[in-house]
Amino acid sequence: MPVTFGTPWLRSTGELAWRLVGILVAVGAVFYVVGLVQVVFVALFLALVFTTVLLPLGDFYDRVMPRGLAMAASLLTAVLAVGALVTYVVTSVTNRWEDLATEFGSGLADLAGLLADVPVLAGLGSPERWLADGGAWLQANAGDYAGTAAQSAGAVGEGATAVVLAIFCTVFFLTQGHAMWRWALNFVPADRHDRWEAAALAGWNAFSGFTRGMFFVALADGVIAGVFLSVVGVPLALPLSVVVFLGAFVPMIGPVAAIVVSVLVALAAKGPVLALVVLIGMVVVAQIDANVLQPLITGKQVSLHPVVMALVVAAGSVLGGLLGAVVAVPLTGVAWAVYSTLRQTPGRTQGGSPVDEAD
Fold first, then answer.
1. Is the separation of the CB atoms in 270 and 233 below 8 Å?
2. Residue range 29-88, pLDDT digits in tens
3. What is the tens place of the pLDDT at every residue in 296-331?
4. Torsional class of 351: left (φ above 0), alpha (ψ -120 to 50), beta (otherwise)
5. Which H, E and C letters describe the chain, residue by residue?
6. What is the pLDDT of residue 348?
7. pTM of the full predicted structure?
8. 10 Å Cβ neighbour count for 85?
9. For residue range 230-276, what is the model confidence (pLDDT) as tens digits?
């Protein structure tokens, strides 16, 4: 008779603990490898994002032209659209740069006058003194900022490399995605093809649904912000709405940056009172994004509860910084979709492989 150790609940708890340790080791190994090839990981992630966004447009072009040409046309359309948005924002700001600079100086003077009347701040000196102290501090720390700028230049170079590699991969995902998937499926035993193909399709649907949901959330944010800024009379309301739209794709930092830019433009053009109104309104827009649009649209696509999404984003930001915050929700959604499908009884998938659309 075999000898057993401990009571049944103790044995089962020990087995579960070892499994959790194994999972943690595997997750840690994944994070370690991703850290070593971070540029490649970012490029692959961006390529998958580009592919999910461009596939519907490519399918539309496919009705009137060959598949390869249709996918190339969809990529070119996306590049031209983003370039046009960025050019529009830069041109709009450049055309009003001198007026904004003058208005910004007037706005700062009005703000300084208001701050000088605050008893607590009056005891700290005049606004002119604050500016002088700030200038002296910047001069004293100029060397540190130069080093930081050099590091930022290196990061920009890595980002450009990732974008170029992502575009290169996107071309092949769009034109040869089905063949690439069939090649990868050969690493799985033939009797398990159906099961893994169903799991991969579920993961792909979760990822593509989240990505397209993010696009509609960003578009809604831009429209709401544009209407609000136009109503309160902020100059460059339409370019600022484009900034809000683009910033919505970067969790945490993007929305905050859009709010800061909008408040600064309002301060420059209309003074501190309107700047405060814009600050409150843009924070409300950000809350609508976080508490209404995100859970209803993107959360539904990845089948994650809003609380789980918030915890996942927080954990991703702690473990991987900004990159971790960006990829946390879609990767968790994909992992959950794949796991849920693999738990089910194996069966033939309906539809096609996760990249059938790209064939």
1. yes
2. 777 777 788 888 888 988 998 898 888 888 888 888 887 788 888 888 888 888 888 888
3. 777 677 777 777 777 887 888 787 777 787 788 888
4. left
5. CCCCCCCHHHHHHHHHHHHHHHHHHHHHHHHHHHHHCHHHHHHHHHHHHHHHHHHHHHHHHCCCCCHHHHHHHHHHHHHHHHHHHHHHHHHHHHHCHHHHHHHHHHHHHHHHHHHHCCHHHHCCCCHHHHHHHHHHHHHHCHHHHHHHHHHHHHHHHHHHHHHHHHHHHHHHHHHHHHHHHHHHHCCCCHHHHHHHHHHHHHHHHHHHHHHHHHHHHHHHHHHHHHHHHHHHCCCCHHHHHHHHHHHCCCCCHHHHHHHHHHHHHHHHHHCHHHHHHHHHHHHHHHHHHHHHHHHHHHHHHHCCCHHHHHHHHHHHHHHHHHHHHHHHHHHHHHHHHHHHHHHCCCCCCCCCCCCHHHC
6. 47
7. 0.70
8. 15
9. 888 888 888 888 888 888 877 667 788 888 888 888 877 777 788 88
CA distances (Å), origin 256, targets 33, 249, 261, 329? 31, 12, 9, 19
Contacts 24+ apart (CB under 8 A), 97-103: 100/235, 100/265, 100/268, 100/269, 101/268, 103/268, 103/269
User: Encoding tokens for residue 251?
Assistant: 């969790």
Residue written as tokens 């130069």? Answer: 146
Q: What angle do CA 132, 138, 143 make, to 5 degrees?
A: 155
The two structure tokens encoding residue 134: 């700030």
Residue 80, both tokens: 């031209």
Residue whose token pair is 């390869």: 68
CA 200 – CA 84 distance, rounded (Å): 35
Give residue for tokens 């980002």.
159
Contact 252, 317 (CB under 8 A): yes
Cα–Cα dist 204/329, whole Å: 14
- Give the tokens for residue 177: 């995605």
